[in-house]
Write a structure and sequence with these properties.
By secondary structure, this protein is α/β, with parallel strands linked by helices. It has three domains: 210 residues, Nucleotidyltransferase, domain 5 (2-Layer Sandwich), CATH 3.30.420; 91 residues, HRDC domain (DNA polymerase, domain 1, Orthogonal Bundle); 64 residues, no CATH class. It is built from 18 helices and six strands. The chain has a six-stranded mixed beta sheet with strand order 1-4-3-2-5-6, sandwiched between helices. It is flat.
Length: 384
């Protein structure tokens, strides 16, 4: 049996290497439409993206990789910023879209294809549900299951530069060829362990969160905000919202608009010396372009109505103890299930519960396994 498995893996490696060598780089509408016909014939399609996000607010798509497990297509979003054929694939509910650690991939796919991938199968989460580390990398997972060695280390290249180096195209093709095979392998084992529904739930939540554009409050992105007084925060909060709007509108990193330190200094000076003094410390160009608006935001801040967000407050001793107990409960459950504790709930997520929040994941498989145990350990869970 071992020899049969070894031969099968060796054959798969040869087929993958051949597909990588013959990957199609496509950008013309006719090529994309022809590829779409091939994609529609598959029930499982692997997808990956390469992008650049160093000097912009939004990710800049550099390449979209697509594979049915036999062939590979490399779609060029630099030549074609919008690819309707990709959108049709993403929206086809009869085709499972397989990605590894979706992260910012969802944002890139929505930019280029106009929609999000449904149904989604994330191989990183699937592997974690079978006992592998939660942050298992794609190349490590492929080697673990199929014995194929994939070189890494090229993700941080400039994927928007043209022409792309052949070595980068090879790397990009390798990043997608194994995804349909991984999906089939992991699905079989998840189903055997009764955990396939877990994966489907988690992936559906990822897509739903991306669709609703759920993100952290702008204030939470400012390092050091928690150390500020309420008077300063009452000004800092609308300034943070303004920076977020400016960054999105101008497609710039937040720090390129105003750094965290500059925002805090602006709010601190405004509290001590007034709006005019605070604005006078800004660079001349910033004052000319945005001075009036910033003065308006500072002067209209309602200090009496401002309420310090609960997530900015440090935990008290009882709350810290509750988090510690909750972590021990999660570790015990993870040991029983033989999975990474972070897959069930991170310290950050448990802290949310102790603070009085009810995360939506409590309504799913995690809540069914965890809620009674937490309550039995005297960890308070907010009512639905």
């Amino acid at each position: 049996m071992t020899n049969i498995r070894q031969i099968a893996c060796e054959t798969a490696v040869r087929q993958a290497e051949s597909a990588v060598a013959e990957a199609f780089l496509i950008s013309e509408p006719a090529e994309l439409n022809a590829a779409r016909e091939r994609w529609q014939a598959a029930d499982t399609i692997g997808i990956d993206t390469e992008f650049v996000r160093e000097k912009t607010f939004r990710a800049r798509p550099g390449l979209i990789q697509i594979s049915d497990g036999a062939d590979i297509w490399l779609a060029d979003p630099v030549a074609r910023p919008e690819i309707p054929a990709l959108g049709h694939l993403l929206a086809d509910d009869g085709i499972v879209k397989v990605l590894h650690s979706v992260g910012e991939d969802l944002e890139v796919l929505e930019q280029v294809g106009g929609t999000l991938p449904e149904p989604l199968f994330d191989t990183q989460i699937a592997a974690a549900m079978l006992g592998l580390p939660l942050q298992c990398r794609y190349e490590h997972l492929v080697e673990e299951i199929f014995g194929a060695h994939l070189p890494g280390g090229k993700a941080r290249n400039d994927w928007c530069r043209r022409p792309l180096d052949p070595a980068l195209l090879e790397y990009a093709a390798q990043d997608v060829i194994w995804l349909p095979r991984l999906c089939r392998h992991l699905s079989e084992h998840l189903d055997h362990h009764g955990r396939l529904a877990w994966l489907e739930e988690d992936c559906a939540r990822l897509v739903d969160t991306a669709r609703r554009k759920v993100g952290p409050p702008a204030l939470s992105r400012i390092k050091g905000a928690g150390r500020q007084s309420d008077d300063i925060l009452a000004i800092l909060s609308p300034l943070a919202d303004w920076r977020e709007e400016q960054a999105a509108e101008r497609d710039l990193p937040r720090r390129f608009v105003l750094s965290d330190e500059a925002l805090i200094s602006l709010a601190e000076t405004a509290v001590k010396k007034g709006a005019a003094s605070a604005i006078s410390a800004l660079k001349p160009g910033m004052r000319r372009r945005h001075g009036d608006r910033l003065i308006e935001l500072i002067e209209s801040a309602d200090h009496d109505a401002f309420q310090r967000p609960n997530w900015l407050n440090p935990l008290d001793n009882d709350q810290r103890e509750q988090v510690r107990i909750a972590q021990s409960v999660v570790r015990a459950l993870a040991e029983e299930l033989q999975i990474d504790p972070a897959l069930i709930a991170s310290k950050k997520e448990l802290t949310r519960i102790v603070r009085g929040e009810r995360p939506e994941w409590l309504e799913g498989w995690r809540g069914k396994l965890l809620s009674e145990r937490l309550e039995a350990a005297s960890v308070n869970i907010p009512a639905a």
